């Protein structure tokens, strides 16, 4: 190990250990809106080290602001949340501002950083998408496929900044599916990196080589905190995407994708990893230390693969035409925005069925010797969702009651209790198969073992559970 890299490890460990001092406590979950970050940007206006500029407006006239800090010759442009439902790095950017503003710690680092670099941050490039917690902007355009046509004002802003500032390095900050695996392993790709290609042939010029070198350093740092949890995103050239074009336009481009981590649904640990890895990379830029990294190490990071389900039930028996069939059941839980997208529920789906022995589950259930059958429907019909309050739902679920029938149609698609609600016209007698919501029970003989409601489960034998929100179908 070289001296430079052991310094990186010490520095990043220090950032990790002191993170709580700098974490912005105004941001606690993923579905914040622009209105939540505007006061945080306003706070920076009182600090003369920060320059705030309005660089344009979104389709719906939300101001898009750039925060500049530092006076050094190396320009770095960092933008987050061009996809409105990908906010992990936005949170980390505000944590970074807190570190830069605070006194007392990391002084040597900050002095060097602000003398050697000028940092331009554009947090939440797609505020209209964030308002709805959706990928696309208010024109229903994916900004990351709009780098050539520039039909969205947000795309015009980003290209304009790259062209006018001509930054040496750019950070393109996203979230990816929580179900990406690191190679063909059960490990979630918690962070993935990409040194974006700038042409179909995926050539490596000095601009792209520097992306690889910076990623090699960030990967080494992250392995301390998430061993085996870093993936490499596919470098297939996408001619319409910003990362690919910005690399082509001469800015060394780093794509960071925040994936999943066990029991971190609001991605607060992943936010911390963003904070640590971005700051480590900024230090490497300020000191040029990354220039000694070997780009070949970049290729040793395993590629992202799709070998994960949220839940994988292995070797269950299911009756088909009077005969038992052995199947694995691959279940995914999908978030559904509720109300103004400030909260969410889940609607889960049986996404695969059959021999899934080459796959893994983030949660796995060995169902050897267990038989799948429908859960019980409660004999009462509910006049409304509020009627659920009258029941001891925990004890009903323990007895294998999974479902209630509604007397009148409900507009809700999810709800908080672990119960599957059937609209008046929805048939209950449908086979358990792909595309269906995973609500069923698993028995050994006559003995109830697992109760599944909307892809969440209870192990009746020991009360272990991953019970979540219910669904209305
Ligand atoms: Zn994205």
UniProtKB/TrEMBL annotation:
One Pfam assignment: Peptidase_M14
Gene3D superfamilies registered for this protein in UniProt: Zn peptidases (3.40.630.10)
The keyword Protease is annotated on this UniProt entry: yes
Occurrences of domain Peptidase M14 (ranges): 28-285
Active site: 238
Keywords attached to this entry: Hydrolase, Metalloprotease, Protease, Zinc
GO cellular component: extracellular space
Record-linked InterPro entries: Peptidase_M14
Needed cofactors: Zn(2+)
One of the GO biological process terms: proteolysis
GO molecular function, one term: zinc ion binding
Entry keyword annotation includes Hydrolase: yes
Homology family: Belongs to the peptidase M14 family.
PANTHER family cross-referenced by the UniProt entry: PROTEASE FAMILY M14 CARBOXYPEPTIDASE A,B, SLL0236 PROTEIN
This protein's name: Peptidase M14
